[in-house]
Amino acid sequence: MGLMPAPEANAVSTLAKKLGRTRTAIDTCAIDADTQRQRIIAVLREQKLVPSDCSFIVSGSLARDEFTPGPAGDGSDKKTEGSDVDWTLLVDGEADPQHLPAIQEIASELEELGFKPPGPTALFGGLVFSHQLVHVIGGEDDTNRNLTRRILLLLESRALWEASAVRERVMRNIFRRYLDEDRGYHAVHGLRIKVPRFLLNDISRFWRTMAVDYAAKRRERAWSGWAIRNVKLRMSRKLIFLAGLAMCLSCQLTPPASVLKEGLSESDFYAALNDFMRGFTNRTPLDVLAGFCLEFDEYGDASAEIFDNYDAFLSILRNHDKRSRLERMDLDDAITDDVFAEARAVGDGFQGGLDKLFFETKPELRRAAQRYGVF
């Protein structure tokens, strides 16, 4: 078993230097996320909690480098109220009765560390089997839960401990489904690189599912916690979709040289494309978006607006009083509440920057966004 490497790129820092900006909240959240991941890794290693055919994977803010500790302060002790710890034990092997005791032990150890358990839907904590993620894509059996687990594995996951590259192997097979079965590549265009619509459609389905589920939870929970979920939908949830959109558009707009070589066999073409796509999965969504900004926003106006507002969003979440107000806010109070007004302004600014990036920078990006993101 071994510790998994950190994400490969750091476009967030490169973009900040280019713009001459200091991203205090973004940088601090990344430091806190690494601190908490190291605490978890230490327990997984010492207690030998991860079976040989499994990978312990975190998603959510802990994987995105957006961890926000609670009122305890720096998050270095057992008090970690704030961000949830969304985790799964990804199994890529035979069913084993010992998998259940493993997740129970892991859950107990995480609680000892002071982490809050996953949300009431119990979506993340527990076992996930690779068979469902790889083989059940689309159709009635592809539930919202299975869709969410699959897309989050691709867009915002990080393996903290595993034996034999389980996460990498499962993702490779998921991308094989999306790419090899996208008939437009070889049936129509003869291996010409383009946007993978099969994958992009599923990412879009995931984004729309999150939006619809927000409305469903608002009703089911009698508006409890609606304000914080609204803010996250407009910011961090939207960011996940943007990372997926950028990944798919990059296939056409900035393809790697490895897929442009003349005379590639079909198997080599798909292997190179698979490698390219998996490169995005080892970066945080914010880093993917920063890389997209560096590529297409020559003057940095859109980038500054996007990242200034995302930093402001994380600053709100890091402020315990503001976060608590959003978590407990009644609908009637939101109309006149200063914190909710601040959060709404941040969401509007973030969206404004995205509009500029995708529709007012380079013509090729605007055309791709209109064709594949709108219609």
Strand arrangement, major sheet: 1-5-2-3-4
Give the domain tally. 1
**What is the terminal-to-terminal distance?**
45 Å
Q: Looking at the structure, what is the overall shape?
A: globular
What would your notes on this structure say?
- The chain is mostly helical.
- It has one domain (about 1-165, about 190-375).
- The protein contains 17 helices and five strands.
- The protein has a five-stranded mixed β-sheet with strand order 1-5-2-3-4, sandwiched between helices.
- Strand 3 (about 85-90), helix 4 and strand 4 (about 125-130) form a beta-alpha-beta unit.
- The radius of gyration is 21 Å and the shape is globular.
- It starts with a strand and ends with a helix.
- Mean pLDDT is about 90; it is low at about 5-10 and about 75-80.
